[in-house]
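Query structure, 164 tokens:
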């Protein structure tokens, strides 16, 4: 959680917080960088060993801290996961989370799940450009307003889990 706080400490509504699987999507991001594919500096990557380790609370905390967008990027389905089924576990978890976030008032485009392989540097760069355009189209004020409305709800959800 310290990485989240550091990544989002300044102008969080201008940032895409991205949880990237070490074996595929992080490697795809690395390929985009080493290949010098251009994309905006809006992304704040957090490397995770497997997307299956991304807990819903990480996403909730990112939005509580004011993230403009959150991306969870994984190995391609069905069989590319280094840990066999981590991408399926992440998919099930995030498929349950997305409608809940929308119901709470989050614009649906602010939370994304994507599948990017280590060889897809171009796809990674295009995705970040697209997400940045969407974030700018939503506007900083709308994102701030949504975050302000969501913050107490998310704090309550996260506190309840701590008490268990």
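Result returned for the query:
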């Amino acid at each position: 959680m310290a990485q989240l706080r550091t990544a989002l400490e300044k102008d969080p509504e201008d940032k895409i917080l991205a949880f990237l699987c070490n074996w595929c999507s992080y490697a795809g991001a690395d390929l985009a960088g080493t290949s010098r594919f251009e994309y905006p500096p809006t992304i704040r990557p957090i490397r995770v060993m497997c997307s299956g380790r991304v807990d819903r609370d990480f996403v909730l905390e990112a939005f509580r801290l004011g993230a403009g967008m959150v991306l969870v990027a994984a190995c391609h389905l069905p069989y590319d996961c280094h840990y066999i089924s981590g991408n399926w576990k992440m998919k099930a978890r995030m498929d349950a989370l997305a409608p809940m976030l929308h119901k709470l008032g989050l614009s649906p485009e602010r939370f994304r799940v994507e599948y990017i392989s280590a060889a897809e540097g171009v796809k990674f760069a295009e995705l970040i450009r697209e997400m940045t355009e969407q974030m700018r189209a939503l506007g900083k004020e709308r994102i701030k307003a949504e975050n302000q409305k969501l913050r107490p709800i998310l704090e309550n959800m996260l506190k309840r889990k701590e008490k268990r």
